[in-house]
Amino acid sequence: MRDHAGAAESTGVGGTGSRVPAPATVGLGRVREAMLMAAGFTTVVPLMKFTVTGFSMLCFLLVLLFSARLDNRRAGAPLLLAFAGSVAYVISSIVNATPLLAPNVPAFAAYGLYLCGLLVLVSDLDELFALMVGVSVGTIGFYAVLGTALTADGVLAALWKYGFAPAVTLLVLYAIARSPRHRPMAACAALVILAAVSVALNFRSHALICLCAALLVFVDRLRRRPTSLPVKVVTVAVIGAAVAKGLEYAAREGLLGSALTDKVEMQSTQHVPSILVGRTEPPLSISAIIDHPLLGWGYANNISSGVIDHAYQLAVSIGFDASYPFRYIWFLPDGSVSLHSILLGSWAEGGVFAVLLPLWLVWACLTLIRFAHRHPAWTAALTFLGIQGIWDLVFSPWSYNLPVVYAAISVAALFITTGNLDRPVRRTLSAPPLGGRRSRPTRPPSPPAQGGAPSGRIPETGPGERRRRGGRRGDAFPLVGEPDSLARAPGGGRRRRDSVGPPTKHVPRHAAPERTAR
After folding, report:
1. Cα(457)–Cα(461) distance, rounded to whole angstroms?
2. Which of 67, 105, 137, 217 has the smallest C-beta neighbourhood within 10 Å, fewest atoms?
3. Which CA distances in Å does 229 have to 217, 219, 383?
């Protein structure tokens, strides 16, 4: 499957304590790469809104056929949280008499299925990103052919904002990582170009995410040593605020087009923190949580008018202008309520137990950002996925193929923190197998005795013999070089494992070996 010339894989980190960086190239066989891409491309077929696709059926079959390859030690925490969230959604739906098949109810179950399928399919980051290429192409195909109500007009700006941008970014970063001479600065330049495209197409949040990811990769490359997570978070916050102010100034000066200028002028009346400019859904989600904190509302459309009135008052109290069109944003054209946040929306709909998995996903995204430097080929992709994942958890609703993306983020975080899967044909050189120990160097022999031979050693008798540590208590050094076919017999002698005769003559352990004529 994999070329042995690149045996030290790009994901060779055995855990959080390992400081050995992985090679900066990707060594994935072309055939396996194509198979994984084809598997990911099955996400192009929608079966039930954004939760169930053709890839769901493939994952279900894989889990049934190869369940023995699923490592429960890795997936235990996220699967347990996904199960708790699904149960919380079902209970909340029953208590509130809302539909059990509401759009967000199966999301956690779909995530759990995708997580199990990915753990069966892939064993390192190379394979994971190859599969994500197929998922990205499937996402682009879905929005290009079918799409949603927001992309039905086929306008490029809408397609880029609601469907294409993250998928195209992953495709570009994968192509750079797979190039024969991978250069981190090429990934930084690509992210800056993609940010410029997003600004031109009125998608400021994606531009901000790309610029922050490029900055983190550039800083790590410039310092030539890893940057701590708090420093990275502060850097992203400061640079993000500066970039947002710069884009706002450029839009007011008319440098970024009339559409963005009009949008900035409408939002200029809001006296709220920059992170909430143009985002009025958090007051609605917080009001719904305050009213039903334990079990939630079951479904966002079930939120009462009294809660909506309280959300309006809360929005005005924190700085939003009273004339802002809240209802136009809170209610979609089909009449459904938009909470526009996976984190807050899960709590508002499913209750307190439904928010546990999104919180764990925040940790997974931070893990990608923190340890991205350990995987030079995937540093830019991991950083981008981590920042984009946190942004979508806080400020975006569930969308098409997003459960697959979060399953991939979870698998990447598990690979980084616990090492690659313990499979004999894919074991890395820079890390021990899962649950194992690194081989310790053989202790040097003792100084030569009077007889001329090292004490405490018996010479090896031929190639292919196993060197093992052992010996009786009190020996100065353990016995090494004992032939694999010999076993210790009662009384101190040695005999062959397949022999049934008496043991051979005992040789004193500290005596010099007899020299025999050849």
Report:
1. 12
2. 67
3. 13, 13, 12
